[in-house]
Design brief:
Elements: E1 11-17, E2 26-31, E3 34-38, E4 42-44, E5 54-57, H1 60-63, E6 69-73, H2 79-82, H3 85-92, E7 96-98, H4 100-112, E8 121-123, E9 130-133, E10 136-142, E11 151-157, E12 160-164, H5 182-191, E13 195-199, H6 212-224, E14 231-235, H7 240-252, E15 256-260, H8 262-273, H9 286-291, E16 297-301, H10 311-316, E17 329-333, H11 341-353, E18 357-359, H12 374-384, E19 388-392, H13 396-409, E20 413-414, E21 421-426, E22 431-435, E23 440-444, E24 447-450, H14 454-465, E25 467-472, E26 478-483, H15 491-507, H16 512-515, H17 517-536, E27 541-546
Parallel strand pairs: 3-6, 6-7, 7-8, 12-13, 13-19, 14-16, 14-17, 15-16, 17-18, 19-20, 25-27
Antiparallel strand pairs: 1-2, 1-21, 2-3, 4-5, 5-23, 9-10, 10-11, 11-12, 21-22, 23-24, 25-26
Helix pairs in contact: 5-12, 6-7, 15-17
């Protein structure tokens, strides 16, 4: 690898996102002067970035080397793997490759962004489709996950083969798709795997992920047990197998199916366009659902993660055409994504206050994870027998634990890496070579800005301490206005004192300082801020305006 980080006669791995966090997956492989990107995902805005909706891994490293990028290969259609495509793919200027279901969802994103003619999107056969991109030959290997067409990638290079798992699990009854069998994976292991780059999300789970078939039976039992009640099920919209299960349960329990949520409508349409959900019952509209006897409707709704604008939140607040009353039932056929506990709790408390019964995966077998537990991980280690394990898709603790698990299970070498670490996989002993700058970007309104930029930092300060505006009138006086200070009852007295302090501070200036606008503004700023601190204990952001 040259000093400009161009790969030479070697195989490199570099995560720009998704290693050290869950979400924003962006992975790069480097070989013989070229780079291959695997996934281009995003995450949703966090409280530490107030006012933002989406968060991205900063692609600056590969944008500067876009001429050496041979393509973007997408493993599956979850937002943390494809969500950044409309924001960065056109600038990168390389083809994108995906299987049909994923490609359809990506195409709709490009259409919404007006980028259809600017991004080349190639559809790859869902049955072990292959592509040659520079020194890389990539073959799709279907694996089970909580979405249609979850895939691993077998990446063949002059220096060995990489098995990049994407998101995956083992499932004996997947219901949707035909994942690679144990025999097929054993054969890949027999042929030799240099590196296993593997999902770490559920490494602390002592049990296997579980089967969609078992969830079908659990949901069927739950719905059967609530005869005469209106039942609402909330789940991840992208889980096509779960949608198929719920359509089947509606039929088997004599209920009409009502769907609430645009993301559900979109996934159902895309799934049916790609050969899935062919026997899915035709949903009824909201008015029809409310006219039916309570025990004759099954509602499928978005919002299980507490999203404030989703259907479930509006139903909980009684602000939706669909309504639930005391004794009705909500089944949470999903897990709580870390960070969403408070939002979910708010919705559940609203429902509980109205006497609505709730059932979660802690009480009944109505959800299984889409990520591998420890037994699943150990099984794929035994089948593939890689020379080196590279944990990805997890927080630091997840990836360290998977490295320990792999070594204990017999993998000869494990490389811990995080975003920005360039790892040489071959030739020679695998390990970290260098560290490059990575960062986060956020979508702030319509603009993508650095997550640690001045705008976001200022917004945090305003949220914490409030704002103070000092308007100087040019005659030695001032008007003070406070925003967000905890002084409701004492505000008028505070303003009077702060304005007096500013006038006193201006009078005390002597010589050239008394005539210097910058000196006058700083004296006014400090005097007003000190007054605010005396009265409130806060140090508000203070801005001085000179009135003419």
């Amino acid at each position: 690898m040259r000093k400009d980080y161009t790969p030479e006669e070697e195989l490199l791995f570099l995560a720009l996102g998704g290693s050290g966090e869950i979400g924003m997956n962006v992975n790069l492989y480097g070989c013989r002067g070229k780079w291959l990107m695997v996934d281009l995902g995003m995450s949703f805005g966090a409280a530490e970035y107030p006012g933002t909706e989406l968060m991205f891994a900063d692609p600056e490293f590969i944008e500067e080397r876009a001429d050496d990028l041979v393509g973007i290969v997408l493993t599956h259609a979850h937002e943390d793997h494809i969500g950044a495509v409309p924001y960065f793919a056109a600038d990168l200027g390389v083809p994108i490759y995906a299987t049909p279901f994923t490609a359809d969802l990506v195409l709709r994103k490009l259409e919404e962004a007006g980028l259809v003619g600017e991004v080349e999107l190639n559809v790859i056969d869902r049955e072990h489709g292959s592509i040659r991109l520079g020194p890389f030959e990539v073959t799709y290997i279907p694996l089970s996950h909580s979405i249609a067409e979850g895939n691993a990638l077998l990446i063949e290079t002059p220096f060995g083969r990489v098995f990049h798992t994407g998101d995956w699990k083992l499932d004996e009854e997947p219901l949707i798709g035909v994942p690679a069998t144990e025999e097929e994976l054993l054969q890949l292991g027999d042929e030799g795997i240099l590196a296993l780059v593997c999902d770490s999300t559920n490494v602390f789970n002592s049990a296997s992920a579980g089967s969609e078939g078992a969830v079908y039976r659990g949901l069927l039992e739950e719905v059967h047990s609530h005869r005469g009640k209106r039942v609402l099920v909330t789940t991840f919209a992208s889980n096509v197998a779960r949608l198929q299960t719920l359509g089947r349960i509606a039929k088997e329990t004599g209920r009409e199916l009502c769907v609430a949520g645009r993301s559900l409508d979109r996934i159902i349409e895309v799934a049916q366009d790609n050969g899935y959900l062919q026997d899915f019952p035709k949903p009824i509209d909201f008015d029809r659902a409310m006219d039916l006897p309570r025990g004759k409707v099954l509602i499928l709704a978005t919002g299980g993660q507490g999203e404030p604008r989703a259907a479930l939140a509006r139903i909980a607040e009684d602000q939706h055409p669909l309504s639930l009353t005391e004794g009705d039932v909500v089944l949470f056929s999903s897990r709580q994504i870390p960070g969403n506990e408070l939002a979910i709790g708010r919705i559940q408390n609203l429902l509980a206050d109205r006497g609505i019964v709730m059932v979660t995966d802690r009480q009944s077998m109505i959800h299984v994870s889409g990520h591998p537990g420890r037994p699943d991980l150990q099984a794929i280690y035994r089948w593939l027998r890689p020379e080196v394990l590279v944990p990805v898709h997890g927080e630091i603790r997840h990836m360290h634990e998977q490295a320990r698990l792999g070594l204990a299970t017999g993998i000869p070498s494990a490389v811990f890496q995080k975003n920005g670490d360039i790892v040489r996989l071959a030739p020679g002993k695998p390990g970290k070579l260098a560290e490059v700058r990575t960062g986060r970007l956020v979508l702030d309104g319509d603009i993508i800005v650095p997550a640690d930029g001045e705008a976001i930092m200022m917004r945090r300060r305003l949220a914490r301490d409030g704002l103070l505006i000092v308007a100087l009138d040019g005659q030695g006086g001032a008007q003070v206005h406070g925003v967000g200070l905890p002084l409701d009852e004492d505000y008028a007295e505070f303003v009077e004192e702060a304005e007096r302090d500013v006038a006193d501070a201006l009078r005390k200036l002597r010589g050239s300082a008394a005539r210097d606008p910058a000196e006058r503004a700083e004296a006014a700023r400090l005097a007003a801020r000190r007054a605010a601190q005396r009265w409130s204990g806060k140090k508000p952001q203070t801005k001085v305006l000179a009135l003419r």
